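User:
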Amino acid sequence: MSALPILDHDSSLPPVRSEQGRARILAVDDDPEVREIAIAALQTANYEPWPAASAEEALEILGDRGLPHLAIVDIRLPGLDGFALCEKIHEISDVPILVLTVVDKSETVVSTIERFAEDYMIKPFNPAELTARIGRILRRMGDFTYTLQPQIRVDEHLSVDFVQQRAIVNGRPLALTPTETKLLYILMRNAGKTVLTSLILRRVWAENEADENTLRVHIHRLRQKIEISPSRPRYVVTERGVGYSFIPPG
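Assistant: Predicted structure:
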């Protein structure tokens, strides 16, 4: 295991791309004019826009298409608001979020960034600045194409559906808790690399105190669900004193 790369911070690789060659950007805003401006800017920058007028529509898109590379979310949305949507996205993944809103209160900005946003922009906005910020975030986050499909087939034994929060083990669906889902997402997003314990703790329990013992308990429970032999794991492997790795087939 020591030969695997060790990830202690977000990678600075070039922006990840979909099979069509473009990173997928979910853009959620109830203002059609804002959506049109965002779509045009994203297309000009060679991104693949996924526009949505509400949080509910955005969740339907995720269920149909899988996860995006990045989400742009307005805080003030009809029905389920932007905060709730961001929380739902982060229950199932570590997808980076850029908040785009008219709300410019400093306490809201600070709270949003601390809770779930990688960046925060105030409307009206400069389209070129929006795409520049997206590019910077994606370069920092690195390559996580492996975790984007609606259902990821790891091998003949295991598949994972992050949106539905479940693993499919030997054809049988097993529910994953939000913590197990996000933990597995972070490890699979960095498949083949050792992710430091400190980084996992920061990304999974951003707002709450957690320690290595807490992490070990959740790793144990996750292995009980997805491993053929939990005492001899083949997917989620421990690098003692360092962190954990998800080992892809081959």
